Amino acid sequence: MSIPFLSLQDQTASLKSQVLKAFEQVIDTQGFASGPAVAAFEKKLASYLGVRDVVCVNSGTSALHAALLCVGVQPGDDVLTVSHTWISTAWAVSYCGANPVFCDIDPSTCGMDPADIERRLTRKTRAILPVHLYGQPVDLDPILDIARRRGISVVEDAAQSIGARYKHRQTGTFGLVNATSFYPGKNLGAWGEGGAVMTDDPEIAARVRRLRDHAQAARHQHVEIGFNWRMDGLQGAVLSIKLDQLDAWNLRRQQIAGRYRAAFGDLPGLRMLPAHAWCEPIWHVFPVFHGKRDELRAALDRHGVSTGVHYPTPVHLQPAYAHLNLRPGSLPAAERAAAEEISLPMFAELSDGQVDEVIRAVSAACHQLAR
Known about the structure:
This protein is α+β, with helices and mostly antiparallel strands. The protein has eleven helices and 17 strands.
């Protein structure tokens, strides 16, 4: 049995006729750039999350960029974030002309370590940008408390966590303005690119709507430097359909994660993220950690189990950020996660038989590597 790390084939096939019908409506209304389908999805997602406004854009990267602009991040400012993330988190800071200042991660969440924030703050710190990695919520309360005391804005990177809850509230709703991605492989993924900004601030929502359309306050009236960030109308149609299935898909991911956790708890050399009573992860990725990562991945590949790595080189050690002069050892928890993380197969359409096979393969490989 060959088991993919991720497959969208079954999900796409199950929705194909419904999506094609929705595409016809987009074609008939000519709503190709933003348009009625996107507006309808924005209202639907806002209701799902419990926020006042959702504003859709063309990617999660653009959404992060927009969010940071709307909390006033300017050239020369500092933005606290993490290095163990997809590089878009840092790109958004750099696009504003600001400096990413990296906190280390909490190994129990692989998100920002609240205990590392205070020593990273500077007089130039404008925002804190935590990432809910793997669909695992960060411990937000201490981050929000520090931000309140210092008068700093929080922007959540919820690109991997739509549907996850922190203390019974949806992630992506705690910061002044927050961002997510609808890249196809996400739990709520488009059939192309897409992203969104979420906020309860009507002025911020209005500004993002302007910025995404060349900063037009009215036709041909451009009130600041704007962008071409409009979402494709076809993606709005897809996302409206898929949102109806999101809770069921996330529940299936949680069931799979539960089986993995029950089976892997005593395996030699293997670590998992601990369970936290204060959050409900939605397992965009199911990460495990092993000191012999490459050997374990090779063994699983021989068993027909495909895996991924999220992410092998932390952002502070990427060539693009060499100018920050951060060396190996500067963020030890992030660097250890980058060296040891393996992402196991995780998608809602995995069958029970496939999950059984993954469990057998991981168990056999870990015992073999421990000899």
